Amino acid sequence: MAIDIASTLELPTFTQILDFVGTFAFAISGIRLASAKHFDLFGAYVVGLTTAVGGGTMRDVMLGLTPFWMTNSFYLICSALALLWVLIFGKQLIRQEVTWFLFDTIGLALFTIVGIEKTLQCGLPWWTAIIMGTMTGAAGGMLRDVFINEVPLIFRKEIYALACVIGGAAYIICRHYGCDEIVTSCMCGGTVILIRCLAVKYKLSLPTLKGEEAAPQKQKKKERE
What we know:
mainly alpha, 9 helices
C-alpha cells in the first residue's frame, strides 16, 4: 500500500514560521538579559520562555482561546534550544549589546504580525487586531523586564510599543489594498524594525510627563543634598 507523504506531512504555514522564529528570537533576548543578571539555568529558561510566550498568552486569554503553548510543546522546546544557544555562544552575545537589540527587535516585529493575523482570523475588527498585535509583541518584553527587576522598556522614553502600533497600521493598510500575505507581513515587520532602529539611532522618544513630586520624595531629596 503506497503512502502519500504529502498528505501525511503537513508543511508549516507562513504564519507558523514567523511564530517559531519570533519565539526563538524573543527567548534568546530574555535569556541573554537573565545571564547578565547571573540567573541560574532554570531561572534563565523561565525568563526566556516568559519573554517568548507572555504576550501571546495574554492575547489568547483576551480572545477566549486556549493559550497556544499549552497545545504545542514546540514553544517549550524552542526556548530550551535558545538557552542552549546562549550557553554555546554566550560570551559573544553578552559582549555585543547590538545582538540583544537585534533579537528583541526581530521578535517584536514577528510577534506583532502573528498577533494581528490571529485576531483577524477570530473575526474581530482591525483596531482590535492592532491592539492585540501590539500586546503580542510588547507584553512578553514587559514581563521579562519585571522578572529581571528593570523598568519595563515600554514605560521608558524609548519608542517600543508605538512601533508595533504603526507596524500594525501598515499591515491593515496593505490588507485593505489587497496585498498578498507575504507582502503584507513584510511591510508590517519592516515598519516595526525600521522605527525601532531609527528611534535608537537618533534617540527618538515620546514627550514625558513632568508631574509634581510627592512631599515625602522631595524631603528625601533635600536630605540627600
